[in-house]
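Project outcomes to date are best conveyed with an example. Our students and postdoctoral researchers have been running inverse folding experiments weekly, and each run begins with a structure described purely in tokens. The record below, which covers 310 residues, was selected by the lab manager from last quarter's runs and is presented without edits.
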């Protein structure tokens, strides 16, 4: 019986980090939730100081837990960007209360505004555009506002599988960005195939949408985990990348790593400096420590262990 020929994984010391990858990973961000952040003893052992940390606000998470997580991360030297999911915010008073808590207790001055994954709104808001229109973030002096981007569309927004409503919303957000003092950017859903990502980004630029793109990338994880999240989050065409990998017995048992997609995007950025993808945003689906370690091993800025920091 023939033995399966599994490819030996390279150790970090054996990896060749290209200047293109190092440049592309500069200024990367990562996402946490209060319950996952609780498991991290010291973020300064994992993330370079100054790394932007998004805090995902899942339905049912008390605002007190969100603010406490933001306060902890800010105290450790990380710019914090909490999610504001429109559909779980009851009304204007609630929105302004959240903003006041984040600012008063954690010094937060940036936010990711999105509709949220709730089918039925809990109150007055159902879209990030309504949150922007409220003026609450401008009045509070927020310096940076990110909104969602969908390289492969979003069936919650376009049930027919088109990009019609998504594109219309992006045009609206582009116009809004010209009226606010806050810096704006698109933070996208994760995808696995560089080709469609590049085409989508180029199509945005051709349509006059000049908002910088922070591309969502799934961090290292078990293949089964990624497929589960990809299906749940409505990831479309690039799901085939995972399905193809699942059919390769030599890769089936190995953890997925985003090396291929990021290498291709980094090379494209190096060859096309005006390419509108400016940053990488990691979804640590296989764990924060695993993702942070991979980023450092592959060209992300190194960090000094907290025990050695002054």
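After processing, the design step wrote out the following sequence:
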């Amino acid at each position: 019986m023939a033995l399966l020929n599994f490819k030996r994984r390279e150790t970090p010391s054996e990896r060749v980090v290209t200047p293109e990858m190092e440049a592309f990973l500069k200024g990367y961000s990562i996402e946490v939730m209060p319950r996952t952040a609780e498991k991290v003893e010291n973020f300064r052992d994992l993330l370079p100081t100054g790394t932007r940390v998004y805090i995902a606000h899942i339905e049912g998470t008390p605002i007190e837990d969100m603010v406490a997580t933001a306060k902890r991360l800010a105290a450790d030297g990380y710019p914090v960007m909490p999610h504001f999911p429109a559909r779980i915010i009851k009304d204007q008073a609630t929105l302004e209360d959240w903003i006041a808590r984040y600012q008063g207790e954690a010094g937060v001055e940036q936010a990711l505004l999105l509709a949220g994954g709730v089918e039925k709104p809990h109150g007055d808001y159902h879209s990030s555009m309504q949150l922007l229109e409220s003026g609450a973030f401008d009045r509070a002096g927020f310096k940076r506002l990110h909104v969602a981007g969908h390289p492969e569309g979003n069936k919650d927004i376009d049930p027919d599988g088109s990009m019609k409503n998504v594109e219309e919303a992006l045009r609206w957000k582009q116009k809004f960005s010209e009226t606010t003092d806050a810096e704006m950017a698109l933070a996208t859903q994760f995808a696995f195939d560089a080709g469609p990502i590049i085409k989508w980004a180029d199509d945005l630029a051709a349509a006059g949408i000049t908002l910088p793109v922070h591309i969502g990338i799934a961090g290292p994880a078990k293949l089964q985990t990624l497929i589960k999240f990809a299906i749940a989050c409505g990831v479309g065409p690039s799901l085939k990348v995972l399905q193809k990998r699942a059919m390769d017995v030599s890769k089936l048992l190995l953890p997925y790593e985003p090396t291929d997609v990021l290498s291709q995007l980094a090379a494209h950025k190096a060859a096309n400096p005006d390419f509108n993808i400016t940053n990488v945003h990691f979804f640590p689906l296989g764990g924060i420590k695993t993702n942070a370690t991979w980023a450092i091993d592959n060209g992300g800025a190194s960090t000094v262990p907290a025990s050695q920091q002054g």
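The chain has one domain: 17-297. The first helix runs from residue 19 to 25. The training component of this project remains on track.
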